[in-house]
Automatic annotation (TrEMBL):
Pathway: Cell wall biogenesis; peptidoglycan biosynthesis. GO terms for molecular function: glycosyltransferase activity; peptidoglycan L,D-transpeptidase activity. Residues 1-28 form the signal peptide. It comes from Bosea vaviloviae. CDD domains: YkuD_like. The lineage of its organism: Bacteria, Pseudomonadati, Pseudomonadota, Alphaproteobacteria, Hyphomicrobiales. This is L,D-TPase catalytic domain-containing protein.
Length: 222
């Protein structure tokens, strides 16, 4: 029995077809990768940061894009030797904890001081103020006179005041440290190291903290 061999032309055609198919596979674009999921804020969480209408000055809602889930006020597990009612600030993690019973704490996202300007150690809340007056420190005026000198005499409390809706004044050994836990009208800075040493919170959060702790409360800044 005679087996016919393929002609040279048919072999060449087959190889060309194989090469063309291989080329298509090689240059084909990889399938698009799914975008990383965006963390969403629940309606209940967003409601905590709605506009406040019962304040002396307007407190606007915090925009959803500024409500990063990690910075939301929330109850968390927190093992510590500090007594319930103690405020603990962790500048590295950008969190403030209000210690609770049974290994829990209320955690708030905060903005902290730039490197070299931040406060460390233990202090006491000797004064609490609603819609506080703000006066830049002498050091702030020296560092940035164009920005702060015009306010050397102080700025009245209000919705444009950099201390926001509330301020807690930190004292150490009976002396004013000049550091504050206070609100801010720039919620996008929460979670960042941008302030002149103070600990800033969203206005809704600092009002919540203000209502929970009395004067004389212990504050520990790690």
């Amino acid at each position: 029995m005679t087996v016919s061999l393929p002609s040279a032309r048919s072999v060449a055609a087959f190889l060309a077809l194989a090469l063309s198919v291989g080329a298509c596979t090689t240059v084909a674009a990889p399938p698009p990768q799914a975008a990383a999921p965006v963390a969403m804020v629940s309606p209940a969480e967003a409601e905590r940061y709605a506009a406040l209408t019962n304040e002396k000055f307007h407190v606007p809602e915090v925009a959803l894009e500024d409500l990063r889930p990690r910075n939301l006020r929330q109850l968390v597990d927190y093992q510590t030797t500090h007594q319930p009612g103690t405020v603990v600030v962790d500048p590295r993690k950008r969190f403030l904890y209000l210690v609770q019973e049974n290994g829990k704490a209320l955690r708030y996202g905060v903005g902290v001081g730039k490197e070299g300007l931040e406060f460390q150690g233990t202090a006491t809340v000797e004064r609490k103020a609603q819609w506080p007056r703000w006066t830049p420190t002498t050091d702030m005026i020296k560092r940035e006179p164009d920005r702060y000198a015009k306010w050397a005499g102080g700025m009245a409390g209000g919705d444009t005041n950099p201390l926001g809706a509330r301020a807690l004044y930190l004292f150490k050994n009976g002396k004013d440290t000049l550091y504050r836990i206070h609100g801010t009208n720039e919620p996008s800075t929460i979670g960042e190291a941008v302030s002149s040493g103070c600990i800033r919170m969203m206005n809704q959060d600092v009002i919540d903290l203000y209502n929970r702790i009395p004067a004389g409360s212990k504050v520990v800044v790690l």
